[in-house]
Amino acid sequence: MAETITDDQDVVLRAEAIGLVRGDRALLDQVSVTVRAGEHWALIGPNGAGKSTLLHVLATYAYPTRGRVDIFGRRLGRVDVFTLRPMVGLVTTHHPVRSARTVRELVLTGATGTTDLAARWTPTAADLAATSAAIAVMGLGRVAEARWPVLSQGERARTLIARALMGRPRVLLLDEPAAGLDLAGREQLLASLDALRHEQPELATVLVTHHLEELPATTSHALLLRDGKMLAAGPAAEVLTTGLVSACFDYPVVIVRRAGRWQVLTDAANRPALTADLDAGTAAAGQGAAASG
Questions:
Q1: pTM attached to this predicted model
Q2: 3-state secondary structure at position 22
Q3: C-beta separation of 141 from 155 below 8 A
Q4: 21-25 long-range contacts, Cβ below 8 Å, gap at least 24?
Q5: What is the pLDDT of residues 213-264, one digit of tens each?
Q6: What are the beta bridge partners of residue 265?
Q7: Rounded to whole angstroms, how far apart are CA atoms 53 and 32?
């Protein structure tokens, strides 16, 4: 039987001390995070840190070995996940696509949650209007009738996000959406995400990346993962610091923020001076590992 949690009605996702073990390897260990409506989280960490694993748990496609996960107040493991998935828009580059379809047709498949246009299905006027709106907010109007093979990587990423919006999700989970994009493609994607967040202020998002330069300016919160363990979680300004990010990647860097965007700087000559910051970040990580949202 599904279990309903009645407190914190603005909470869309909550993971409490979750762990996930496969074989003899702990992919996640004591990870906690709470995502509320309108918050925009970044999951940051090096390759193999457990970012995509955590995202798939939050999307109901993986189950934790221990701990608990609540999605819209429903306990994972005690609820039919198919009732939750329409409200959770998972966007991954591994989504199967029929290459003969246009951008408009691919976005429209989000109305039925299928990988291709459903046979004998006729979209309603509302479906067509929603498709046009999703295309517009993701900046795809110019290529709406173009077919998948001729799209750039950035246009493909934005098409898949527009498709996910057709389900009217309450939270959007983005698995490295800027991976493989060139400078122009990345900037167009991030501008579209910022526009979407202003257009739908109650929509929550969780974005996985290991590059801080790929974070939209509207990012509000961040969680740092290393070796499946949480180093820190909370408001982005408190987590994406020189000390904590250096500790997360086990490499001395300097974090700066300009015009709302983050940059990572390194300088071999400054590495000795950064050692204190790295040590401070490691200590802060130990103290802040239990913090979330």
A1: 0.85
A2: strand
A3: no
A4: 21/65
A5: 999 999 999 999 999 999 999 999 999 999 999 999 999 999 999 989 999 9
A6: 254
A7: 14
Q: Across the strands, what pairs with 234?
A: 222
Residue 217 CB-half CA count within 13 A: 12
- Are 231 and 224 within 8 A, CB to CB? yes
DSSP per residue, 210-270 = S-GGGS-TT--EEEEEETTEEEEEEEHHHHS-HHHHHHHHTS--EEEEETTEEEEE--GGG
Pull the structure tokens for residue 247.
Answer: 């500790």
State residue 267's pLDDT score. Answer: 65
CATH class of 11-240: alpha beta
Q: Are 195 and 40 in contact (CB under 8 A)?
A: no
The 10 Å Cβ neighbour count of residue 150 is 9
Could you give the count of Cα atoms lying within 13 Å of 169 in the half-sphere of its Cβ?
Answer: 29
Q: What are phi and psi of 247, to 5 degrees?
A: -65, -40
What per-residue string of b and e applies to 121-134 under the rule 16 or more CB within 10 Å gives b? eeeeeebeebbeeb
Mean pLDDT of 31-57: 95
**Structure confidence by residue, pLDDT tens digits, 136-192:** 999 999 999 999 999 999 999 999 999 999 989 999 999 999 998 999 999 999 999
- Length, in residues, of the chain: 293
DSSP state of 34: E
Tell me the β-bridge partners of 175: 208
Give the whole-angstrom CA distance, residue 16 versus residue 290.
Answer: 9
d(CA 191, CA 140): 12
Return d(Cα 223, Cα 129) in angstroms, integer.
Answer: 36
Domain boundaries along the sequence of the chain = 11-240, 241-287
Read off the pLDDT of residues 237-251 as tens digits, 9 standing for 90 and up. 999 999 999 999 999
Tokens of residue 257, six digits: 């923020």
